[in-house]
Amino acid sequence: MAAVNPYLNFDGNTEEAFNFYKSVFGGEFEVVSRFDAMPEEYQPDQSDINKIMHISLPIGESILMGSDRPKSYGPINKGDHAYVAIKAESEEEATKLFNGLSAGGVITMPLAKAFWGDFFGMFTDKFGVQWMINYSYNNN
Predict the structure, then answer these.
(1) CA 20 to 30 Å from 127, out of 28, 36, 63, 103?
(2) Are 52 and 37 a contacting pair, CB within 8 Å?
(3) Is residue 98 within 8 Å of 110, Cβ to Cβ?
(4) Please, are residues 4 and 85 in contact by the beta-carbon 8 Å criterion?
(5) Cα(27)–Cα(2) distance, rounded to whole angstroms?
(6) Judging by DSSP bridges, how do beta strands 62-68 and 31-34 pair with one another?
(7) In this structure, what are the phi and psi dihedrals at residue 80, rounded to the nearest 5 degrees?
(8) Mind listing the pLDDT tens digit for each residue in 72-127?
(9) Looking at the DSSP assignment, which residues form a beta bridge with residue 112?
(10) If DSSP codes are grouped into helix, strand and coil, which group holds residue 42?
C-alpha cells in the first residue's frame, strides 16, 4: 500500500523551519539537498542555488518533506505551498496513482525516471490539490 506524506514549500526559510521541526520531533534528517546539486540545465536562478531543493525528516512511520520554492515558480500563495507526497511501492502503483489522480488536472512534471534516480512526477489535480508521486528504486 502506498504511503502518504506531507510536502511543504517555503519562501527561502526551509532550513530554518526544518531545524525547528527537528527540535520538536527529534530524529535526524534523512536527506538534505540543495539546488546546486541539480544538473545545470535544471538549476533555478543563481539567487536560489544554495537554498533547499529537498529535505526529509522521518517522524514515526511518516516523513515530513519540504523545499524552498524557486523564484521561477512564482510567489507562494496561501494554499499552494503544500503537496501531498505519495511513496509508491512499485513503478506500476506509481503509474496507476499518477494517471488516476492527474486525470483532468495539470501535470507540472511528467512521471519518469528523475535525475536523482527515482521514478517521480508532480501535478495539480482537477480540484487544485498538488501531488507528488515517487517510487524509489533504492528504498523499496
Answers:
(1) 63
(2) no
(3) no
(4) yes
(5) 23
(6) unpaired
(7) -115, 20
(8) 888 887 777 788 898 899 999 999 999 998 999 999 999 999 999 999 999 998 87
(9) 120
(10) helix
